[in-house]
Amino acid sequence: MRNLRASLKARVGATCVVLAASIFSAGAAAQHKVEMSPGGYPVAPTGIADNPLPKGPFHYRTAEGMDIRVEVVARDIEYPMALTFLPDRAMLIATRKGELHLLEPGAKRTRLIPGGPDAVFSGESGDAGTSHGYMDVVLHPDFASNGLIYIAYNKPDGAGRHMAVGRGHWNGEGIENFADVWNAPQGAGGMTRLAFGQDGTLFLTTSGPDAQNLGTVGGKVLRINADGSIPDDNPFLRNAFARKDVYSYGHRGALGLAIHPQTGAVWESENGPNGGDEINLIKPGTNYGWPFVSLGRNYPGPWQSGGRPGHEVFEPPVVYWMPAIAVSGLMFYTGDALPKWKGDIFVGALRTGEIPGTGHLERILVNQNMEELRRETLLYDLHQRIRDVKQGPDDFIYLAVEQKDGSILRIVPAD
Ligand SMILES: [Ca+2]
Question: Which of 8, 208, 240, 303 has the fewest Cβ atoms surrounding its Cβ within 10 A?
C-alpha cells in the first residue's frame, strides 16, 4: 500500500510538472511579441489577403436548407461603399474615391454620374485612421416627386476635411444643384451612414472621440430634418450643453444603419475594437456606453472595460461579436425570393479576428422579440470585404464588395 501511494504520489507529481510546463509554455506563447505600428496597433498578417474575386457564380448550401447562387453583377468599381436603388431599378453606387456610379438593370458595367460634391479620402481602406470620400447614398422618401438624392461624404476644408451631408436633384443623367444640409466641425465626423426614418427625419451616424460628450459630434447617432433643420422632438433640446441634433450617444463608430421595415425602429451596427462589435436598437436620448463599457479587447490585448461587461447603467447591444468581424452595412430582409431568410438580420463583415482577407456576410435569425436564435457565416471562402447589404426591388440581396477591384454581388435562390 505504501509503495502504491508513493508510486501514485510520484505520478501525480510528474503530472503536475507536465501541467506546469504546459501552462508555462502557453503563458509564454501568449506573450508573443508581434510587430506594432507607430500608432500602437498590432501589424496584421496578410497571408490570405488580396484574394481576387473568382468569376462566379458561386453555389452554397445554407443552414436553413435553402441553396443559393451568388452572382457577380458588376466589376471594376474601386472601393464601393454603399448602394441604393432608383425607382426604375437602376442602382446607384457610392465609392470611397468620391464617385457615384450608375448600374442600369441588366448592364454589366457602371457609368459615372456627374454632379456630386468634391470629396477627399486618405490611407488604405482597412488600415487604422483612414477616411473615405463618399460613405453613403440614400434617396429622399418622396424621391418619386422631388428627385432628391442625399450623399454623406468627407468634404475638403482647406486645412483638412470634415464629414458633411448634402443633397441634389436627380435629372435622369446626373445630380444638379448639390448643396450641403449638415456639416461637422473641421476634422470631425469619421465614418457615417444615413437612413430616413418613417417620420421623414434623417438619421446619421458618426465615429470619433467624445462619444460621452453631448456637445460634440463624435460617437453619436444624430437626427435632422430633410432640410438640415432640427426636429422639434429631438431628445436633448432642453440640455444647454448638448448639440440639438444628438439622438443617442456612447457609440464607437457605426458602419451600418437601418430602419426596421415593419416596426420603424432605428438599428445600427457598430464597430468595437478587437471584439465588442455590436448591433444596437437605437432609442432617443440613450447612452450605449462607449468607451466605458465594451465586450471587446483593445487592439494591443487588454479588455476595453477591464473584463467587466458592466452594462448596468448603459444600453446593452442586442447582438455582439467577440472577436470582431468589423460589422458594416446592416439590413433586415423582408422579401419572398429567399423565403427561409425572411425577417432575418444581415450584416456585412470587413475582417474577422483582425486578419485581413476574412470579410464575409453574416445572417442572424431572431425571434419576434428580436432576440437572437441562430447566426450563420456566409461567403467566407470568397475572402472579400462586404461593406454594404441591400435588398433589391427584385427581393434579391445585393452586396457591395469594398476592394480596389471592387464589385457588386447578388444572392438569388439556386436553380
Ligand atoms: Ca455599446
Answer: 240
In a domain, 15, yes or no: no
Whole-number Å distance, alpha carbon 304 to ligand 1 midpoint, is 11
Q: Fill in the DSSP letter of residue 32.
A: -
The whole domain housing 142 covers: 57-413
| Ion ligand 1: residues, CB < 5 A | 288-289
pLDDT at 16: 44
Q: What is the Å distance from ligand 1's center to 206 Cα?
A: 14
Other CB atoms within 10 Å distance of the CB of residue 253: 19
CA distance 64 to 271: 27
For residue 294, how far is its CA from the centre of ligand 1 (angstroms)? 6
Element holding 247 (H helix, E strand):
strand 246-249
Measured in Å, residue 129 CA sits from the centre of ligand 1 at 21
Please give the average per-residue pLDDT across 261-272, as a whole number.
96
Task: Render pLDDT for 283-303 as a digit per residue (tens, 0 to 9).
Answer: 999 999 999 988 888 887 887
Distance (angstroms) between ligand 1 centre and the Cα of 316 equals: 6
Kindly give the distance from the C-alpha atom of residue 250 to the centroid of ligand 1, in angstroms, as a whole number: 7
Q: Each residue of 228-261: pLDDT tens digit?
A: 999 999 999 999 999 999 999 999 999 999 999 9
Residue 3 has pLDDT above 60, yes or no: no
Q: How far is the CA of 356 from the centre of ligand 1 (A)?
A: 24
Cα(315) to centroid of ligand 1, in Å?
7
Determine the distance separating the centroid of ligand 1 and the alpha carbon of 194, expressed in angstroms.
19
Count how many domains the chain has. 1
Bridge partners of 256, per DSSP, are 269
> Residue 34: its pLDDT value, please?
86
DSSP string, 55-79: S--EEE--TTS--EEEEEEE---SS
